[in-house]
Specification:
There is one protein chain. The chain is α/β, with parallel strands linked by helices and 493 residues long. The chain folds into two domains: 323 residues, Alkaline Phosphatase, subunit A (3-Layer(aba) Sandwich), CATH 3.40.720; 104 residues, Arylsulfatase, C-terminal domain, CATH 3.30.1120. 26% of the residues lie in helices and 20% in strands. The protein contains 13 helices and 18 strands. The strands form four sheets. The chain has a ten-stranded mixed beta sheet with strand order 6-5-4-3-7-1-8-9-2-14. It has a four-stranded antiparallel beta sheet with strand order 15-16-17-18, covered by helices on one side. It has a two-stranded antiparallel sheet with strand order 10-13. The longest helix is centred in the middle third of the chain and has 22 residues. The chain is globular and about 60 Å long. The protein starts with a helix and ends in a 16-residue tail after the last helix.
């Protein structure tokens, strides 16, 4: 029995069987019932939000609505975006495949004629045959020509900026039409939220997929009048607070429309923070394949299907003159998964939950067993960290092997002689569970692990496009001629 039919109450299911609804001639009644119970999917994606930018991940910025999602669901400590920059990460989310396989190894510019390969099936395209209504709100950044826009990739409607807010021309689109230029950024989060909640209200009679991709906290930063100065912690915190408000509005809309118990809601970010946000205790930022550039907040909530957090054991309240003897308080805590998961896993997970047909060979896996609390982890092969076409790191279990690194800092002017991706000789090995800031290279103590991961990288290479294989060959060829035997500069914490 599939997951959707499991959503039918047992009595109604038996009535359908007794009434012949399962027979070829009477299937429409059951299909109507299963369509009504098919889960809704809401994916909320922030732009350049750091691992340490939410209260539930250690920030001082108030994020009560996102925190409540974590308490009511599960949050991950080891979730990866598949890229340290935006377009490739979004391509991985939409396709379930490495961005180097799907035509989006680098950030796309507004003038690029291509985008996410037209041979790829997006989450929206996968869900359409099951009768899902679909909408993309916010930043797309997977191609701007008509064939690559959301309305050509499975979305019924689109409302947003088709790329980053620092790229020109500054345009706001509704479906395929430009409705505003330049974009009034100060009201953008408010207007995005209105579009998202309207779509929920209008789609409540059928299953739907809402992909809500915020423009912020990507720079230039702007908060609406209602939130500017609201936190007393600066503009960046105000912007995060407004995003948190938006999440609260989406969750409230689900409740108001009776959809809360039949909706999977996900919150995450496309890559690490630039110079304003916080990577928490992780090393690196946006554009770096250190953990701070690619490890993201990830929270999933589905009442009744994803086990909620718990109330911590009762503890004495903080001492205060007004506190009576024996006064106790309960503190809510979220269920935390320490298993690794990635942006590549969203499509196969949504496919399994909605009983949709997988679009082909994927790099991601179904993490529903973790979300639902049935398993602590699922099997992943090595996870590769790309910078453009270059493989720089690979993770297997708790181990992360750095095999290459550029000879300069991200976002700096190119050094004399050009920017080179140089091999690390020897490679660096970190246990990113016990050493999340990648401070202690333990390669010398674990030669078998180093060899195993290296062999897996080499075995995976033939499955990637020629550009990946060629970049690897070029990088490895630099080993003999590079200064210091190929060792690039060390990037400080």
């Amino acid at each position: 029995m599939d997951r959707m039919s499991q959503g039918l109450p047992r009595r109604d299911f038996l009535k359908a069987v007794a009434g012949g609804a399962l027979l070829a001639g009477g299937g429409s009644s059951l299909r109507a019932q299963t369509a009504a119970t098919a889960p809704n999917i809401v994916v909320i994606l922030a732009d350049d939000l750091g691992f340490g930018d939410l209260r539930c991940y250690g920030s001082n910025i108030p994020t009560p609505n996102i925190d409540s999602m974590a308490v009511e669901g599960v949050r991950f400590e080891h979730f990866y975006s598949a890229s340290a920059v935006c377009s490739p990460s979004r391509a991985a989310l939409m396709s379930g495949r490495y961005p180097t396989r799907v035509g989006c190894a680098d950030v796309l510019s507004p003038s690029d004629g291509a985008g996410l390969s037209l041979s790829e099936t997006t989450i929206a395209q996968m869900l359409k045959p099951a009768g899902y209504k679909t909408m993309c709100v916010g930043k797309w950044h997977l191609g701007t020509s008509a064939a690559y826009l959301p309305t050509s990739r499975g979305f019924d409607h689109y409302w947003g900026i088709p790329y980053s807010n620092d790229q020109t021309p500054s345009i706001l689109m509704q479906d395929t039409a430009i409705i505003e230029s330049p974009v009034e950024l100060d009201t953008l989060t408010q207007r995005y939220t209105q579009q998202a909640t309207s779509f929920i209200q209008q789609s409540k009679s059928s299953p739907f997929f809402l992909y809500f991709a915020h423009t912020f906290p990507h720079i230039p930063l702007v908060a609406s009048a209602a939130f500017k100065g609201s936190t007393g912690m600066g503009l960046y915190a105000d912007v995060i607070s407004e995003i948190d408000w938006s999440v609260g509005q989406v969750l409230q809309s689900l409740k108001d429309n009776g959809l809360d118990n039949n909706t999977l809601t996900i919150f995450t970010s496309d890559n690490g923070p630039w110079y304003l946000g916080s990577p928490g205790k992780l090393r690196g930022r946006k554009g770096w394949t250190y953990e701070g550039g690619v490890r993201e907040p990830f929270i999933a909530r589905f009442p009744g299907r994803i086990p909620a957090g718990r109330l911590a054991a009762q503890t004495p309240a903080p001492s205060a003159a007004s506190a009576s003897p024996g006064h106790e308080v309960n503190e809510a805590s979220s269920r935390v998964s320490t298993s690794m998961a990635t942006m590549l896993d969203l499509l196969p997970t949504i496919a399994g939950l909605t009983n949709s047909k997988l679009p082909g060979k994927l790099d991601g896996v179904d993490i529903w067993p973790i979300l639902s609390g049935k398993q602590e982890s699922v099997d992943h092969d090595i996870f590769l960290y790309f910078d453009s076409w270059n493989i720089q790191c690979a993770r297997l279990g708790p181990w992360k092997l750095h095999v290459a690194r550029y000879n300069d800092f991200p976002w700096n002017p190119d050094p004399p002689g050009g920017r080179l991706n140089l091999p690390l000789t020897p490679p660096e090995l970190y246990n990113v569970v016990t050493d999340p800031d990648e401070s202690y290279d333990v390669a010398a103590d674990n030669p078998a692990i180093v060899s195993d991961i290296q062999a897996r990288i080499v075995a995976a290479l033939p499955t990637f496009p020629a550009a990946v294989r060629n970049s690897w060959t070029v990088t490895m060829a630099l080993k003999a001629s590079a200064p210091d035997g190929g060792l690039p500069i060390q990037i400080p914490q």
